[in-house]
Every structure is written in structure tokens, then in C-alpha cells.
Design brief:
- This protein is mainly α.
- Helices cover 97% and strands 0% of the residues.
- It contains one helix and no strands.
- The chain has one helix spanning 2-68.
- The model has no long low-confidence stretch (mean pLDDT 94).
Length: 69
């Protein structure tokens, strides 16, 4: 009977360890998800700044064109 109990204890320990490993993977996936969200926000901000700079450059070119004439 002791052998059976020991084997069941080993199985339970294995299940507990698997559960911990799965939770660690979930935590790491959540970190990657948060980084991805942060990166997406950064890309949006960079795109917006780029568009603003492009608009400002076009206005500056128009002003310079009046002096070239």
C-alpha cells in the first residue's frame, strides 16, 4: 500500500509542478503582451510625430518658395 501512496504523491507533485510551470508561462506571455501594447503605442506616437513634421516641412517649403520668387 505504501508503494501506491508514494506513487500517488509523486503524481500529485508532478501535477503541482506542471501547474507552476504553466503559470510561469502565462506570466511571461502577459509580459510579452504588455510589451507589445507598449510598442504599438510608441509606433502610433512616432507616426503622429512624423506626420506633424511632414506638415511642418511642407509649410516651411511653401514659405521659402515665396522668398525664392
Amino acid at each position: 500500500m505504501k508503494v501506491v501512496v508514494d506513487k500517488v504523491d509523486e503524481m500529485v507533485d508532478g501535477y503541482v509542478q506542471n501547474g507552476k510551470s504553466v503559470q510561469e508561462m502565462i506570466d511571461k506571455v502577459n509580459v510579452v503582451r504588455e510589451l507589445s501594447i507598449s510598442n504599438a503605442r510608441s509606433v502610433e506616437e512616432i507616426a503622429s510625430a512624423s506626420e506633424h513634421l511632414s506638415t511642418m516641412t511642407a509649410k516651411l517649403n511653401n514659405l521659402l518658395a515665396t522668398y525664392k520668387s
